[in-house]
Amino acid sequence: MKQPPSYETPALREFGEVLKSRRTIELFLQTLVPEALIDEAIETAIWAPNHHVTEPWRFYRLGDATKQYCLDLCRDIVAAKKGEKAADFKRQSWSEKPGWLVVTCARSDNELLQQEDYAACCAAVQNLTLYLWKAGVGTKWTSGDITRHPRFFEIIGMDEHTEFVVGLIWYGYAKLTPTQSRRDVNDVKIELP
Ligand SMILES: Cc1cc2nc3c(=O)[nH]c(=O)nc-3n(C[C@H](O)[C@H](O)[C@H](O)COP(=O)(O)O)c2cc1C
Question: Which structural domains are found in the chain, ordered by start?
Answer without folding.
Answer: 35-174 (3.40.109.10)
